[in-house]
Amino acid sequence: MNAHSLTLPRSPGSIGVARRLVESHATMLSSREREDVVLMVSELVTNALVHGTGTISLRIDIASDALRIEVSDDGNVRVAPSPTPGAHGGWGLRIVDQLADDWGVREGSTKVWFRLGPLPRQS
Q1: Alpha carbon distance 83, 42 (integer Å)
Q2: What residue segments make up the domains of the chain, in order of their start?
Q3: CATH 3.20.20.70 assigned to 2-116
Q4: I need a surface site. Which of 21, 48, 93, 104 has the fewest CB within 10 A?
């Protein structure tokens, strides 16, 4: 397994940094899958900026057949899709739920993860 971690500042610029990191390490994905992963990372980092506290961390775990990404912060809030998404937000976890093969929240500080895989074998 190949793992990459990055601590992000509490700044809107962190969204672009996270997107670029994922793009550079998710080369085993199709262009469509990579676009989906970048969108999901953008949503989770945005949620951490808007709703979280403290340090934001991004972790990418790459295995031969799956990609797992986790975004965490120092907060400890209940994470669930918004019951009423609208023009001002609430879509992030719904997007993750639709695009990821699996996702969840780890106990403790706010840690939201998603997984794509099993991935097709590259020849």
Answers
A1: 20
A2: 2-116
A3: no
A4: 104
